[in-house]
């Protein structure tokens, strides 16, 4: 009992002596006894779990030997968000599972990648995106801004 009283007295003195402290001995006693109220954390939206996300991609559409061209990362992302698909992250990449012959006007392996919720995959597929886990690619710095034109409709 003497030890507890001494500890409470010491705690009260330390709290009273600390700069800017306006705590009372009663508060110190509550803290020491472990009965102080615990503040409740603010409720936040739960973070999206990694298992609920998927990378999708589309070809940039730029051509070899041409400056600019193709669509920009921002335009590609806007294509998704404009259709109700929330984009968590975007980046540029290049396909490594195909070879592209060096010829002016030929296709490049440049792709635009977006991280979206797995529940939005069907909407992304309808917009012409494909799951990135079906191809091999490497991330790459986005070069140039591309044009701000909208991609043409693809005809089969």
Order of helices and strands: HHEHEEHEE
What is the helix tally? 4
For the largest beta sheet, what order do the strands appear in spatially? 4-1-3-2-5
Question: How many domains in all?
Answer: 2
| Largest β-sheet summary | 5 strands, antiparallel
Query: Can you identify the CATH class of the largest domain?
Result: Alpha Beta
**What level of helicity do the residues show?**
25-40%
Strand content: 15-25%
DSSP summary, beta strand count: 5
**Weakly predicted, low-confidence segments:** 17-42, 146-156
CATH architectural grouping of the largest domain: 2-Layer Sandwich
Radius of gyration (Å): 29 Å
Secondary-structure-based class equals alpha+beta
Shape: globular
Can you tell me the CATH topology of the largest domain? Alpha-Beta Plaits
> Mean of the pLDDT scores?
76
Q: What would your notes on this structure say?
A:
The protein folds into two domains: 2-33; 50-140, Alpha-Beta Plaits. Helix content is 26%, strand content 19%. The chain contains four helices and five strands; from the N terminus they run ααβαββαββ. It has a five-stranded antiparallel sheet. The longest helix is centred in the first third of the chain and has 16 residues, at 2-17. The model is unreliable at 17-42 and 146-156 (pLDDT under 50).
List strands and helices in order, with pairings.
Blueprint lengths: L1 H16 L7 H9 L19 E7 L13 H9 L5 E9 L14 E8 L3 H6 L3 E2 L5 E4 L16
Antiparallel strand pairs: 1-3, 1-4, 2-3, 2-5
């Amino acid at each position: 009992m003497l030890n507890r009283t001494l500890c409470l007295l010491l705690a009260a003195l330390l709290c009273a002596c600390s700069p800017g402290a306006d705590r009372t001995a009663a508060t110190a006693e509550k803290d020491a006894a472990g009965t102080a109220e615990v503040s409740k954390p603010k409720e936040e939206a739960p973070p999206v779990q990694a298992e609920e996300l998927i990378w999708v991609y589309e070809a940039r559409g730029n051509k070899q030997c041409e400056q600019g061209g193709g669509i920009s990362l921002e335009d590609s992302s806007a294509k998704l968000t404009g259709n109700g698909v929330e984009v968590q992250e975007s980046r540029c990449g290049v396909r490594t599972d195909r070879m592209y012959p060096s010829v002016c006007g030929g296709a490049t392996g440049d792709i635009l990648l977006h991280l979206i919720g797995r529940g939005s995959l069907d909407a992304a597929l309808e917009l012409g995106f494909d799951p990135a886990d079906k191809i091999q690619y490497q991330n790459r710095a986005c070069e140039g801004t591309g044009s701000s034109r909208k991609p043409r409709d693809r005809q089969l």
